[in-house]
Specification:
Length: 305
């Protein structure tokens, strides 16, 4: 599904990589010479772009993924993940190697991610002809904030294809995130580092082209700005115990985009996202089990309107 040049619903740009998951006894982790990890330490394919692509595919959307991937064992894991799930992947050579991170996960599901920034080569670029061809064959493009996606934004804007992005834990000030925030039609971010989420989401909409801005706030729900109106979206109770918050934001974004591409209003899209995000918190990060469309529809029926 989603071979290069074939029409797809969503092109996911960037964010392909590998994580090593370590379940630790607490966060922050007190200094010690060593810790025994009886739950095991596992390396698996899957970073933000991978998880958005998996989520979209599980919801029945034709999905293609484009990124720089290294000729290394980690790159082999990324390619295998897409091949096994039947998700189209254009893996361009990544001279600095495949992106990787270590995620420390506490007993309450909170995580601390350590990103290997040496995998971002300043001179890397996506070939413009490849970018235009794939974007032109897509109904929507979801742009991750990994390098070199910022340099792709002008090319994507020229195609006229609607864009979304996820700013993750942006503090509202870091200039690296601004080009993404201002170029996208739909902007997702976490409220974790925001002292005033309403101010930040309104600034994004006022300064950029965003029609919708969503700031997720974990157990406190989310802030949805659409048509100039700010709405608080209540959190959805997870269907099982919370074990891991890895991928919850990616699941939220995928489900929101599923609703948007189906023509649903922003409020319902945000509720889709809340349901999918809650589900993701019940799945260990060592497994890739996105919510299916059938499960999303069933769970939505139980969510108060």
């Amino acid at each position: 599904m989603g071979s290069q040049g074939e029409a797809v619903d969503v092109l996911v740009l960037g964010g392909a990589g590998v994580d090593t998951i370590v379940y630790v006894p607490e966060l922050p982790l007190p200094y010690a010479d060593s810790y025994g990890i009886d739950s095991g330490i596992r390396t698996r394919a899957g970073q933000t772009g991978d998880f958005v692509a998996l989520g979209l595919d599980a919801l029945g959307l034709r999905t293609h993924h484009l990124d720089l991937v290294g000729d290394d064992p980690e790159g082999d894991l990324v390619r295998a993940l897409h091949r096994e799930r039947g998700i189209g992947l254009t893996a361009l050579p990544g001279p600095a190697g495949t992106k990787r991170a270590v995620n420390l996960v506490g007993p309450d599901g909170r995580r601390l991610s350590l990103y290997d920034t040496s995998r971002a080569h300043p001179g890397d670029r996506f070939p413009e002809d490849t970018l235009r061809a794939l974007a032109g064959a897509s109904r929507h493009v979801h742009v991750t904030i990994t390098q070199p996606c910022a340099e792709a934004l002008p090319v994507l804007a020229a195609t006229g294809v609607p864009l979304s992005t996820d700013l993750h834990d942006w503090d509202g000030e870091n200039p690296y995130h601004e080009p993404f925030a201002l170029a996208a039609d739909v902007v997702f971010l976490s409220a974790a580092a925001l002292s005033d989420p309403e101010r930040t989401v309104r600034r994004i909409a006022e300064r950029g082209r965003a029609e919708v801005v969503v700031a997720t706030a974990g157990a406190e729900g989310a802030y949805l700005l659409a048509d100039g109106e700010l709405t608080r979206i209540p959190a959805v109770a997870p269907p099982a115990p919370v074990v891991d918050s890895n991928g919850a934001g990616d699941a939220f974004a995928a489900a929101f985009l599923y609703g948007r591409l189906a023509g649903e209003p922003p409020l319902r899209c945000a509720r889709y996202g809340a349901v999918a995000g809650a589900h993701a918190c019940t799945v260990p990060a060592t497994r890739a089990e996105p919510m299916s469309r059938e499960a999303l529809v069933e769970r939505m029926a139980a969510v108060p309107a």
